Amino acid sequence: MSLVRPYGDTRDDGAVQLSFTLPIAWSEAADEAARQLVAKMGFAEVSVVEGRAIAAGFSFFVVYARTPVAIDVSTIRAPSAARDALSMEQVDQLIAQRVGRKVKVVGACIGTDAHTVGIDAILNMKGYKGDYGLERYRGFEVFNLGSQISVEDLVRFAREREVDAILASQVVTQKGSDIANFTALAELLEAEHVRERLLLIAGGPRVTNLLAAELGYDAGFGRGTMPCDVATFIARGISDRQLG
Ligand code: B12
Q1: Quick check: 123 and 107 in contact, CB under 8 A?
Q2: Which of 3, 21, 173, 207 qualifies as a cystine partner to 220, CB 3.0-4.6 A?
Q3: Strands (E), 40-153
Q4: What distance in Å separates the CA atoms of residue 67 and residue 57, rounded to the nearest whole number?
């Protein structure tokens, strides 16, 4: 058992900071409404430290409060897909020795999502924060389809080119659109009997490896992912399949 709780001033004081918008004009009564709302959530010693109008009929609040609850971190299991990253040379060597051909990878922002910076960071030659992207590796053949790609087009492409891995990106999460699109992709691959033939990888700032597993993906990569983590996962995954 290893109980932890948030703290601000002194260990275990339970201090948290919340921020939210209410659809009401700002006034002192709006501050008080925000305070009572947070108290109703179960927090104690609630104080509104910022409250202001952000548009006609809308107010934004920052609130400090204390939570009475704690979490037993010894019970939490959330294995990362990014483990013991290999260097670019090691990845290329692994693919050359165990696969003996280039590994084909296709990436896209699916649905209506137009946020390409994340998937580009992983795939583009230039890479991210000094770590080269998959296009730079000798062992990968990379197809970057860009933004707003329908799952139908992505699956058709994957089938026609016989790719080894699909990298799907979702940055917008409004109204669960990310989950709906990831799910539609996994289901279409199943329906077309190609799911087992390839590695299916989800990515984006709100993606976790746990979430991806729940959605039937082989891995999920979230905030701050480096290209070498993804390259390592794909190279190991495809090499293991070659042996199996
Ligand atoms: C740049 C940007 C835009 C640009 C995108 C340009 C482009 N070509 O990408 C433009 C102006 C077009 C844009 C538009 C919109 N945006 Co915008 N945008 C951003 C912004 C400022 C930065 C995103 C970014 O580039 N991050 C940098 C990259 C490197 O980080 P990343 O995406 O997390 O990627 C990393 C990891 O997540 C991971 N990764 C990502 N994908 C994948 C995929 C795989 C397979 C793997 C392995 C890893 C991986 O690896 C990357 C490297 O570590 C964010 C706010 C923010 N500060 O994050 C808002 C933000 C994402 N946008 C937002 C919104 C709401 C919109 C709009 C709906 C706004 C509007 N009302 O029109 C539109 C939607 C357009 C559309 N159809 O998608 C919201 C999304 C809220 C939500 N969660 O739903 C954000 C969070 C802003 C906010 N706080 O409200 N946006």
Answers
A1: yes
A2: 207
A3: 44-55, 58-66, 71-72, 103-109, 140-144
A4: 30
Phi, psi at residue 174, to the nearest 5°?
Answer: -55, 135
Tallying the residues shown for the chain, one arrives at 244
For residue 40, indicate whether it is catalytic: no
- The sign of the dihedral angle between the CA atoms of 152, 154, 160, 164 is negative
CB 244 within 8 A of CB 148: no
Residue nearest (by alpha carbon) to ligand 1 atom 41: 204
> In angstroms, what is the span from residue 240 Cα to ligand 1's centroid?
33
| Domain shared by 92 and 67, yes or no | no
The CATH number linked to 67 is 3.30.30.60
Radius of gyration of the chain, Cα coordinates, nearest whole angstrom: 23
Ligand 1 binding pocket (C-beta < 6 A) is: 107, 112-119, 121-122, 128, 167-169, 171-174, 201, 203-205, 221-225, 230
- Each residue's pLDDT tens digit, 109-163: 999 999 999 999 999 999 999 999 999 999 999 999 999 999 999 999 999 999 9
Pick from 90, 111, 93, 106: nearest CA to 229: 90
Q: Are residues 50 and 106 in the same domain?
A: no
